[in-house]
Every structure is written in C-alpha cells, then in structure tokens.
Amino acid sequence: MKLKVYADRMSQPSRAVIIFCKVNGIDYEEIKVHISKGQHLTPEFAEINPMKQLPAIADGRFKLFESHAILIYLACAFPGVADHWYPADVFKRSKIHSVLDWHHSNLRRGAAPYVFNTTIAPILGRPLNPQAAAEAEIILSSSLSKLESFWLKGNGRFLLGGNQPSIADLSLVCELMQLEVLDEKDRTRLLGPHKKVQQWIENTRNATNPHFDEVHRVIMLAKERQQHQRLKAAKNEGGSNMKKPLVSRM
Fewer CB within 10 A of the terminal residue: the chain, N end or C end? Predict the structure, then answer.
C-alpha cells in the first residue's frame, strides 16, 4: 500500500516530511488536514494520531507520529534514500539525534510561539500575547546564537560540519522558514546578526530544490497576505490621524 502522509503545509514539521519524501522519490499520498479548520481534532484523525498533532503517517497498518521519528523511519524503511540523510555510522547518527533533541527543547520552543503570538494567532481566532512573544524571543535568540556558534562551526555547509544535508538540517530549516511571515524588519532583526545561519538556510534550500520552494509556497503566500494586511492597517491608521482641514465660516 502507498504511504499516507497526513499534513498541513502551514505546519513546519509537516513540510519537512513532505520535502523529504519528494527529494528521495518516496511514493506517497498527501492527505491534507487543515489545522485552521480544526480537522486535526476530529475523532477520525485521532485514530491516526491520538495526540491530534501533525504530521502523521500510515504505512500499511503501521502508524507513526512526531516528525523526527517519521523522518528516521522513512530514511530506514525506504530503499534508495542517500546515506547522508541518516548515516549508518553510529557516531554520525548519534550526533544527528543530539541535534534533533536540541531542536525540540530549544529552537522550536522559541520560533513557534514567537511567530504564533506576534502574527498567526488572530488567523486562528486567538489574541496576540506580547508577554508570551517576549519570552519566546529570548529562547529563539539564544537558539540562533547556538546554531551560529556551535552547530554550524567549522567549514561544512551543513550542521555538524557536513557537506550534505541530514534530516536534522531539513527539520531545523523548515522550523526557521516560518519566520518569513514576520514583518521584514522583525525578521531582519532576528536573523540579521547570524550570517552562518542565513547561508545554511540557503544551502539547504538549494540542496532540496525544486521541492523546497514548491512546498514552502504556502508560506510565501501567507507572507504576501500579511504584508498586504500590514500596509492596509498602516494606511488606515495614517488616514485616521490626519487632521481635518479648517474651513472658513465666511
């Protein structure tokens, strides 16, 4: 049976799994589950993933959730996946696991809540939370510094000094791509000081194109919508602040 991938492309880990399948020629069926419509909370989806989160897969009778676990499974279960994605060498593989564990307890804890509480929340009918955003920014900034100074140290083009991407590169870069929906000044303020991080994002994009750009098209469209809304809001605010011209009573 064909692999089924349950995903919402607005979800960072969903994008990582889809890109991995496309790059490695894995035959799969993408089943769209729209988070904005609450489709991940239905009893039907709970049969696939009781945690009601995305992504999830079903490979025949085998079901699996959590994106890191899914990427590891795909790299091992499907022949033809290049070794650099998840090396057979136990030392290299263990290093990749260390990055993946660090990701969920650091970078994801900063990036996801920061974007949600500064930009995405109103789209889902939730209020913005400046305090939560400020707390998330501290974690995000610290994580970006760690990426720049530790995980990307050396002359390699990818994490851990590698010259080819691993599942860790793909997972973390997809995480950071959500920053595209931020105001450009905000995004530049966060990423601007980290030149290695910016180059690494571009390296990973180039290594996985055209699939990377195709899967991230949804993020670019969301970015365009956000820019339009900001311009409209600024225009309305500017108009409301204009003083009415004085008219002579004569």
Answer: C
Contact at 8 Å (CB) between 86 and 76?
Answer: yes
Residue 246 belongs to a domain = no
Q: Which residues form the domain of 193?
A: 85-225
24 within a domain of the structure (yes/no)? yes
CB 13 within 8 A of CB 57: no
- Per-residue pLDDT of 17-62, as tens digits, reads 999 999 999 999 999 999 999 999 999 999 999 999 999 999 999 9
Annotate 131-149 with b (16+ C-beta within 10 A) or e (fewer): eebebbbebbbebbeebbe
pTM score of the predicted model = 0.91
Compute φ and ψ for 17, nearest 5 degrees.
Answer: -65, -45
Residues 40 and 52 sit within 8 Å (Cβ to Cβ): yes
pLDDT at residue 241, rounded to an integer: 54
Q: How many domains does the chain have?
A: 2
CA distances from 174 to 46, 221, 246 (A): 25, 16, 54
